Known about the structure:
Number of strands: 5
Order of helices and strands: HHHHHHEEEHEEH
Oligomer: single chain
Low-confidence stretches: 25-29
Radius of gyration: 17 Å
CATH class of the largest domain: Mainly Alpha
Distance between the termini: 20 Å
Amino acid sequence: MGKYIGSKCRLSRREQVDLSLKSGIRLHDQKCKHSVLPGGQRITRTSDYGEQLRKKQMIRHYYNIREGKLRAYVKEAARLEGATSANLLRLLESRLDNVVYRMGFACTRAEARQLVSHGSLLVNGSKVDIPSYLVKPGDVVSVSDRSKKQLRIQAALQLAEQSAGASWLEINVEEVSGIFTGYPELDKLPPEFKPNLVVELYSK
């Protein structure tokens, strides 16, 4: 499946939730009316299969990943010890581009992905330019010295100050670095996420 290049607001409206796809200081619900589907469609009850598809798309767009990558994460989650649905979200949350976004070094996950690809991020002092790199508990993620003064990073840090950070991260704003202290529990993530439905969809 190719990269989506359409309206980001349209995606959030289709899923009825803020997918954190757009940057800015205005509240998302002031820009996107979640109660109105794209094209003026009315919200109707969907089948069980349709609900599984919607939850899959929600998670896929939220983490800015493609279909094949999400399918691979589901397979990996099933191999790990514990509940597959919980493992799936832990894998997604430990992606380097997502961690960079959560730490407030980028305004969106797409921007975080670009920063990582351009070699602006370090993990435990070593450059990592793979957005899907999985960060482990205790890892230190930091912005390289040459990139710390980038205007987009400074703007992202200012924006991040307006919201509470993730409880599983320790951020040092002055050093533009942070520690991934552990994997988040399901109750720390958006309640709209239903990873069990995604697992069920791919198990068919």
